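Sample intake sheet
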Amino acid sequence: MELIHESAGKKLYRDGDKLIKSFDESYSKANILNEALNQARVEETSLNIPKILAVTVVDGRWAIVRELIEGETLESLMAKHPEKEDEYLNFFVDLQIRMSKERVPLLGHLRDKMHMKISSSAYPATVRYDLHMRLDGLPRHIKLCHGDFQPSNVIITKDGTPYIIDWSHATQGNGSADAARTYLIFKLQGKDELAEKYLNLFCTKTDTAIQYVQRILPIVAASQSVKGKPEEKEFLDKWVNVCDWQ
């Protein structure tokens, strides 16, 4: 096995035509099995998804074994070819829209997950109440939501086929909430111009009012705050404490 990537609590190994993702003790067995189950369920859609091959234990650590997809992430391609940013962003948004048209009825619901995260956040009861009410006011959709849809989670093969990876946060729910999450990711990465361009493109292509997505932003900001990253706190607090978007 060849170690090809390491991040907090996770290691990625290449083993021939397989990718092995191992987790340390900070990840519960239930969460690891749930990630594998989510991906297995999404495999049944028309999307290109690396297939889960096994869930096992490697060197005392739980691990998920899946197909290795040869290619380059969309994030890497965008960095290498800034002149093609608009082309790549169009491709990215079109893929997200295509994904949202899929139905995976056995996945958990985004609304339930968001309610749970709001309840476990550190915000005062008055703020949490407002967020719960906002969430309950959203239309009840059953679109496939990735939960972490960003260019680094899209691998493009040599023949141009896009594979979507990392389905640990997959749910079914409101597609605009998934878009709000993508917008938040870009903002947290300091890619403000790209974030605005993305949001405008998504709303234009889906005929969605920007104000509608903006009303969801405090909810996704609150859910992100549960991760407890000090460097994000001030930024997220500003979003969460907005009562009325203009």
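Comment: The mean pLDDT is 94. The CA atoms of residues 118 and 128 lie 6 Å apart.
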